[in-house]
Amino acid sequence: MRTLGAEIDDTGGMLHCRAARLRGREIVLSLPSVGATENLMLAACGAEGTTSICNAAREPEITDLQNFLNACGARVSGAGSTTVVIEGGHKLHGCTYTVMPDRIVAGTYLCAAAAAGGTVLLQGAREQHLATVTAVLREAGCDIVSDSAGIACVCRRRLRAVRPVRTAPYPGFPTDAQAILMAALLRSRGATVFEENIFENRYRHVDELARMGADIQVSGRTAVVTGVETLRGAPVRCTDLRGGAALCVAALAAEGETRIAEIGHIDRGYERIERDLRALGAEIERIE
To answer: Which GO terms describe its molecular function (predicted)?
Structure first.
């Protein structure tokens, strides 16, 4: 943002941003961050001249944002590649636009079916957006088919361990699905290795899963999940958004009642997760 001409004061734990005018520049990201790419795209639409974002994130959400901005009158190109180009200064207008399905929510409900057993049909979900997740679930023993209508997942037997799961920028395995898949594999036959390559401190959910009887050993960026015969319901708390969703997935596979506290984390990324899981047959309720 500063490269575009913004003045940003980050003292006191707050961000105060202002700019008399923004000017297009070439910006090279040190990491292909989704949030950084999206915010730069938005800011560049209001800047004078052309902005090029190099080493941009390639996630489907970037392409979706480009399509939305162009529908509003912007001129953005290159989304889905490593370079996004924005021609700033064009007047924007309103539009009617359908946002893409949430691929991490879709992955969560597929993992829920894998953990608890049964069948789920996700209408409108697009497998091309989460192919790395469905590939692992197939390897674990789930039957998954997809078409233009959505994704169907059937799991009628105990899962088996899979080859090492390594998180990576898109199109690699998404870090946001790491905790959720881990929860689905807690009762699998054998051991699965997870390697977290995007964020630090991404295993905060492990201690909470251990309260339910999970066997997980963590060393640095690596976690080894050894499947157990039985998980037990327990009082647990959300440590973050995806970790909270992982607790819900694990609770579906556990015997007895699980109480999940601090669910505000989950609400950041799911619209009434208990409603959707209840529709799939789960015995779940929100206690205000």
So the answer is: UDP-N-acetylglucosamine 1-carboxyvinyltransferase activity
